[in-house]
């Protein structure tokens, strides 16, 4: 009973102290109720208008600069395979040797026929000369005409024999199947002793020229129309025919040599609505191989505008570009841009921004419009990462 009497006053004292502390906190709180949070810090980039490159990132495939299927033009057995499969060969190098015994014999026979035909010409010429002298003194006109025909026939026989010899020599030379240009060979589809026939359907091998190499790029017809309109209006300057083209390979690495435009298909696919652009690249080390998938960055021209990093932008339901900015009162506002083009890893816009505007590049997804923020100026490097600008100390007095 005594302990209960002692505890009750002690408990009453604690309750009074708690109420006093609560009243003090309530008195210190603002009139709105709960304590206000400090403005959230956000990374911003200060906008500055300048001439920027207009780029387009396009998918593409590598295609050999030249490709030919090696086929025989004469019939015979393969006597020799003179190249290493998958190796580089030079124009004129012998790839296959077809058995040539019969072709050498044909050449010898044609030479003999030519010699035989040539022998008859002097006699025919002498006979014609004799009848020319006697045509008015004993020889008839018919005999003279016959002598002339005999000479012409002998000359025709010689020409025919020469053509037969030339044809036989060509066939003999065709027993050596040569590379038509510098390139890289593929696997041979025949072995020693195999019989091949002239102009057969199956190729003996395939030869590809890889340096330089073609890159076939695909772009939409919509982009083509927009670009033409931009050049026509003078908004974009430059010559697209001199566009610089850079490649990124399948492993994500940049391919160092730059390429140039070779041609563009003057037709749009009826099924995909795209058209083809062909670029040519030096490929001295055969790094790019036919069939490889690549992505190309094509610099088409230049335009004055503001860069919005892709990481700082989104698109609304209508597909329009949107980005958030910090206003003069340090409150967030969203801006929409109906026209935008690509410039590297950025969007390039020309309207809706002024020099000195502050673009939010980090954390904007969780910030509502009109929210108060604390801007921290940063820069965005080529890799797309933000780097805080160093603070400049005030000059000492």
Automatic annotation (TrEMBL):
<feature type="coiled-coil region">
    <location>
        <begin position="144"/>
        <end position="178"/>
    </location>
</feature>
<dbReference type="GO" id="GO:0046677">
    <property type="term" value="P:response to antibiotic"/>
</dbReference>
<keyword id="KW-0175">Coiled coil</keyword>
<dbReference type="GO" id="GO:0005886">
    <property type="term" value="C:plasma membrane"/>
</dbReference>
<feature type="signal peptide">
    <location>
        <begin position="1"/>
        <end position="23"/>
    </location>
</feature>
<dbReference type="InterPro" id="IPR058626">
    <property type="entry name" value="MdtA-like_b-barrel"/>
</dbReference>
<feature type="domain" description="Multidrug resistance protein MdtA-like barrel-sandwich hybrid">
    <location>
        <begin position="67"/>
        <end position="204"/>
    </location>
</feature>
<keyword id="KW-0732">Signal</keyword>
<dbReference type="Pfam" id="PF25917">
    <property type="entry name" value="BSH_RND"/>
</dbReference>
<dbReference type="InterPro" id="IPR058624">
    <property type="entry name" value="MdtA-like_HH"/>
</dbReference>
<dbReference type="InterPro" id="IPR058625">
    <property type="entry name" value="MdtA-like_BSH"/>
</dbReference>
<dbReference type="GO" id="GO:0030313">
    <property type="term" value="C:cell envelope"/>
</dbReference>
<dbReference type="Pfam" id="PF25967">
    <property type="entry name" value="RND-MFP_C"/>
</dbReference>
<dbReference type="GO" id="GO:0022857">
    <property type="term" value="F:transmembrane transporter activity"/>
</dbReference>
<feature type="domain" description="Multidrug resistance protein MdtA-like beta-barrel">
    <location>
        <begin position="212"/>
        <end position="301"/>
    </location>
</feature>
<dbReference type="InterPro" id="IPR058627">
    <property type="entry name" value="MdtA-like_C"/>
</dbReference>
<dbReference type="Pfam" id="PF25944">
    <property type="entry name" value="Beta-barrel_RND"/>
</dbReference>
<protein>
    <submittedName>
        <fullName>Membrane fusion protein (Multidrug efflux system)</fullName>
    </submittedName>
</protein>
<comment type="similarity">
    <text>Belongs to the membrane fusion protein (MFP) (TC 8.A.1) family.</text>
</comment>
<feature type="domain" description="Multidrug resistance protein MdtA-like C-terminal permuted SH3">
    <location>
        <begin position="307"/>
        <end position="365"/>
    </location>
</feature>
<dbReference type="Pfam" id="PF25876">
    <property type="entry name" value="HH_MFP_RND"/>
</dbReference>
<feature type="domain" description="Multidrug resistance protein MdtA-like alpha-helical hairpin">
    <location>
        <begin position="107"/>
        <end position="175"/>
    </location>
</feature>
<dbReference type="InterPro" id="IPR006143">
    <property type="entry name" value="RND_pump_MFP"/>
</dbReference>
